[in-house]
């Protein structure tokens, strides 16, 4: 399928895990892809090579999503190089899980800054370009933690719930200009984050999932690309759960 042929997409936090899978899937569907990284120069170079091997034009930027100036500079550079920004996937995220009474101000600030402020920064920068072009799609990667809350994740749940509210508000603001905004609420997906779970926590999580397995990045990427594509032209303001039936 080439449903993203000729389109230009930005994916934040794409050097590993879910973001990497989305970037590669977008390239397979014909998109040119830009992504950011913070420290992983080698991983960024590897991903760029893989994207180009799929026939995509690829751009890698060392940019901090939590800094609005950096987000603006990256978005403007992508627009200048690709000529357009048709899609944005706000995927960058971190966890600093602790019980509320043990959570530090730094634990709170880092998670909110990356997960929520980072999405705001890139959406704000990209929105100007998309509104002028009268088309575009923004996909915010959130979590079932933002829907139902998870013990030990007050900061993470707050950031992901904030993303859901942001998605709906932005969809109402930008819809009149032809720009769509949707969110993916993910459950447990096999990434570096879930690899840190203890065997006990993993077993307990599996008992709560209707499909009795953790998701794979390959379960997520096609849905993100669908929302970026014109096949989802009449979908905005939605939160699609990709969680195996966890949050029911």
Average pLDDT reading: 95
The tally of helices reads 9
Oligomer: single chain
**Annotated CATH architecture:** 3-Layer(aba) Sandwich
- What name does the CATH topology carry? Rossmann fold
Query: N-to-C SSE series?
Result: EHEHEHEHEHHEHHHE
Radius of gyration: 17 Å
CATH superfamily annotation: NAD(P)-binding Rossmann-like Domain
Shape: globular
Q: Report the β-strand fraction as a percent range.
A: 15-25%
- The top-level CATH class is Alpha Beta
Biggest sheet details: 7 strands, parallel
Low-confidence stretches: none
Helix content, binned percent: 40-55%
What is the secondary structure topology, with strand pairs?
Blueprint: E1 8-11, H1 17-28, E2 32-37, H2 41-53, E3 58-62, H3 68-82, E4 87-90, H4 105-133, E5 136-143, H5 145-148, H6 154-174, E6 179-186, H7 192-195, H8 199-208, H9 217-228, E7 239-242
Parallel strand pairs: 1-2, 1-4, 2-3, 4-5, 5-6, 6-7
């Amino acid at each position: 399928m080439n449903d993203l042929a000729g389109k230009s997409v930005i994916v934040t936090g794409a050097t590993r895990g879910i973001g990497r899978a989305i970037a590669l899937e977008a390239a397979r569907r014909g998109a040119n892809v830009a992504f950011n990284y913070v420290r992983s120069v080698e991983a960024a170079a590897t991903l760029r090579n893989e994207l180009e091997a799929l026939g995509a034009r690829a751009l890698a930027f060392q940019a901090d999503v939590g800094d609005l100036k950096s987000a603006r500079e990256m978005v403007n550079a992508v627009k200048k190089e690709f000529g357009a920004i048709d899609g944005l996937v706000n995927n960058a995220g971190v966890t600093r899980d602790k019980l509320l009474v043990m959570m530090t101000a730094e634990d709170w600030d880092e998670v909110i800054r990356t997960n929520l402020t980072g999405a705001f920064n890139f959406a704000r920068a990209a929105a100007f370009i998309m509104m002028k072009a009268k088309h575009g799609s923004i996909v915010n990667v959130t979590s079932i933690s933002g829907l139902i809350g998870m013990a030990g994740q007050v900061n993470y749940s707050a950031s992901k719930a904030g993303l859901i509210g942001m998605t709906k508000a932005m969809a109402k603001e930008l819809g009149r200009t032809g720009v769509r905004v949707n969110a993916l609420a993910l459950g447990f997906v096999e990434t570096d984050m879930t690899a840190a779970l203890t065997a006990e926590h993993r077993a307990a999580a599996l008992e709560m999932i209707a499909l009795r397995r953790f998701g794979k990045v390959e379960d997520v990427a096609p849905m993100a690309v669908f929302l970026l594509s014109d096949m989802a032209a009449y979908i905005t303001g939605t939160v699609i759960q990709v969680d195996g039936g966890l949050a029911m």
